[in-house]
Write a structure and sequence with these properties.
alpha/beta, Aspartate Aminotransferase, domain 2, 4-stranded mixed β-sheet, 387 residues, Aspartate Aminotransferase, domain 1, 2 domains, binds pyridoxal-5'-phosphate, 19% strand, 7-stranded mixed β-sheet
């Protein structure tokens, strides 16, 4: 069967497609229908921090699938309670209330709704180059014009400020602001870490004006940046935290986590989700968090990220503008379009990467990757750039 032709014929068409068909994954690798092996340094766009098919996550999913897969949140669940406990145990104390979702976008959507309900205010402040999702709410705080323009009118009012511009932030956030939403490291927007001054100013200014601070750690959370949560680099605790990607160890799972003060102001029945908090996802999430925490995998991410970035910085190429990142969230900004180089990396070296904006090659390696594999990848990046 020509699976590629079938997929292309029936696909919605919103994604550009690879011209190989992936059938299987294991650890840091995926395999195509021809039996080719690819070093997967994108791993579900950051989902597979633990790599593909982590044994503890697989075992938890298998066991729970046989017991109970679905249970609406009106019924209490042992698996859900366990997930809440394991998740809130690794967060600062005020972040004690969880709304489980099936994706990152839904976590952001919940965050915006909880923020409006809790403050009684309407305005959001977001950053230029932000990415928070593609539903109407989350898209409204996402910067990229090509994602937004066809779908206007979006949720308003939203003020976009330049990322890392403290003065613009202080001017934009006022007594009418419901929340400021920020990524501690912008992912899709080009792998751009926040400055400590910017996130700290966001915390201070929101506190002073009675607005809430939402940190979107969907891409940065759970070890990726070299700390369990990226906000730990900055000494800033948000009022609302959004999580997804690695949270389910590969299983679709997101969460919005907030404080008693915020959650208590959301009217009962004002938000919900049929699949959110299902026992299967909860079991996967519990296993994934435990696997990350038990082995302190953020420390490995920090070390590997440093090795990878050092190797990338040694590449001699006039095409590179900057190598930047935090932990295993790494971007190579080029002076030209990045897509052709990612394509060559896949075709010639069987290494998978993705773009972050037009000119940045983005790498989100799984923490199970080895130092040797990252050094080989850096060498391959050098080769495709210098051909
Ligand atoms: C920071 C951030 N927020 C939100 C999202 C949306 O998450 P999802 O694709 O799971 O809906 C993403 C996805 O890339 C993201 O990186």
């Amino acid at each position: 069967m020509d699976w590629l032709a079938v997929e292309k014929r029936h696909d919605s068409g919103v994604y550009a497609k690879s011209d190989f068909v992936i059938t299987r994954g294991e650890g840091a690798y995926v395999y195509d229908t021809e039996g080719n092996r690819y070093l997967d340094l994108i791993n579900g766009i950051g989902v597979g921090f633990l790599g593909h098919g982590h044994p503890k996550v697989v075992a938890a999913i298998k066991a729970q699938a046989e017991r109970l897969m679905v249970l609406p949140q009106v019924f209490a669940s042992d698996r859900r309670a366990e997930f809440y406990r394991v998740l809130t145990d690794v967060l600062p104390e005020p972040l004690s209330r969880v709304f489980p979702t099936n994706s990152g976008t839904e976590a952001v959507e919940a965050a915006l709704k909880f923020a409006r309900a809790a403050t009684g205010r309407k305005k959001f402040v977001a950053a230029m180059r932000s990415f928070h999702g593609r539903s109407f709410g989350s898209l409204s705080v996402t910067w990229e014009k090509k994602y937004r323009e066809p779908f206007k009118p979006l949720v308003e009012p939203v003020t976009f400020i330049p990322y890392n511009d403290v003065r613009a932030l202080e001017e934009a956030v006022d007594e009418e602001t419901a929340a400021v939403i920020l990524e501690p490291v912008q992912g899709e927007g080009g792998v751009r870490p926040a400055t400590p001054a910017f996130l700290q100013a966001a915390r201070e200014r929101t506190e002073r004006t009675g607005a809430l601070l939402i940190l979107d750690e969907i891409q940065t959370g759970f070890g990726r940046t070299g700390r369990l949560f990226a906000f730990e680099h900055y000494g800033v605790v948000p009022d609302i935290l959004t999580l997804a990607k690695p949270l389910g160890g590969g299983f679709p799972l997101g969460a919005m986590v907030t404080t008693d003060a915020v959650a208590d102001r959301m009217p009962k029945g004002a938000h919900g989700s049929t699949f959110g908090g299902n026992p299967l996802a909860m079991a996967a999430g519990t296993a994934a968090i435990q696997a990350i925490v038990e082995e302190r995998l953020w420390e490995r991410a920090e070390r590997l990220g440093r090795v990878f970035m050092e190797a990338l910085r040694k590449i001699e190429s006039k095409k590179i503008r900057e190598v930047r990142g935090l932990g295993l969230m790494v971007g190579v900004e080029l002076k030209e379009k990045a897509a052709p180089y990612s394509k060559r990396l896949a075709e010639q070296h069987r290494i998978l990467s993705i773009q972050a904006g037009p000119t940045v090659m983005r790498f989100l390696p799984p923490v199970v990757v080895t130092e040797e594999e990252l050094l080989r990848a850096a060498e391959a990046v050098g080769e495709v750039l210098n051909e």
